[in-house]
Amino acid sequence: KAGVTQTPRYLIKTRGQQVTLSCSPISGHRSVSWYQQTPGQGLQFLFEYFSETQRNKGNFPGRFSGRQFSNSRSEMNVSTLELGDSALYLCASSQTSVPDNEQFFGPGTRLTVL
Amino acid sequence: GNSVTQMEGPVTLSEEAFLTINCTYTATGYPSLFWYVQYPGEGLQLLLKATKADDKGSNKGFEATYRKETTSFHLEKGSVQVSDSAVYFCALSVLNQAGTALIFGKGTTLSVSS
């Protein structure tokens, strides 16, 4: 079974631009979550999508948004990029949206904002 | 709110030494608890989990017991190997009205030398 895939793997943007990251979950998984990983703040939850609906959202500004398609693929968008948005963005999928489900992580997209 | 505190690293050990990485949590409700590991150059992967009090999760020689009375989930291994060198994250997940989210500790870097 193919794992979670994320594209692109690396991105360089400048302040003020916007960016879209993509995540394809493991086949059959309906829940997709996004996390931001930085050296200072560690791993922080962004949002979770299940069956095309946002179920949960972390404490991030409205510049961070996402969506999920009918095939469970998900995208996240960051508008008006700031230097502090430089991070590794991780996507994780799980079969359902319950706390004891294992989440399978993708390799991440490394975003650098100049 | 929900949070996870784990010991600061780095932890440096010789091969065959005993490992303990402390993890304590604060949560509303009844969380599921996890240890995830991130090997150099690889994505996050689940190491072990426990979903209720007194459960013991185990995998690859690592163990952790869900202690509700001390709100702890310490990771232990009796004899570490060089291949265990990685970053270890303690995490919890609670189902709330909105959905699920993994809340991570800051991570502990383990370096094992031969």
Secondary-structure map:
The complex is a heterodimer of chains A (114) and B (114).
Chain A: E1 5-7, E2 10-13, E3 19-24, E4 31-38, E5 42-50, E6 53-57, E7 64-68, E8 74-78, E9 87-94, E10 104-105, E11 109-113
Parallel strand pairs in A: 2-11
Antiparallel strand pairs in A: 1-3, 3-8, 4-5, 4-9, 5-6, 7-8, 9-10, 9-11
Chain B: E1 3-6, E2 11-14, E3 19-21, E4 23-26, E5 32-38, E6 44-50, E7 56-59, E8 62-65, E9 75-77, E10 86-93, E11 102-104, E12 108-113
Parallel strand pairs in B: 2-12
Antiparallel strand pairs in B: 1-4, 3-9, 5-6, 5-10, 7-8, 8-9, 10-11, 10-12
Give structural attributes.
heterodimer; A: mainly beta; four-stranded antiparallel β-sheet; B: 114 residues; mainly beta; 12 strands
Protein architecture, described:
The complex is a heterodimer of chains A (114) and B (114). By secondary structure, chain A is mainly beta. Chain A has strands at 5-7, 10-13, 19-24, 31-38, 42-50, 53-57, 64-68, 74-78, 87-94, 104-105, 109-113. In chain A, strands 2, 4, 5, 6, 9, 10 and 11 form a seven-stranded mixed sheet that branches. In chain A, strand 7 and strand 8 (74-78) form a beta hairpin. The N and C termini of chain A lie far apart (37 Å). By secondary structure, chain B is mainly beta. Chain B is 0% helix and 50% strand. Chain B has no helices and twelve strands. In chain B, strands 2, 5, 6, 10, 11 and 12 form a six-stranded mixed sheet that branches. In chain B, strands 3-9-8-7 form a four-stranded antiparallel sheet, with no helix packed on it. The mean pLDDT of chain B is 92. The chains are: A mainly beta (114), B mainly beta (114). The A-B interface holds A 4, 31, 33, 35, 42-45, 48, 50, 55-58, 90, 92, 97-108 and B 31-32, 36, 42-46, 49, 51, 89, 91, 93-96, 98-107.
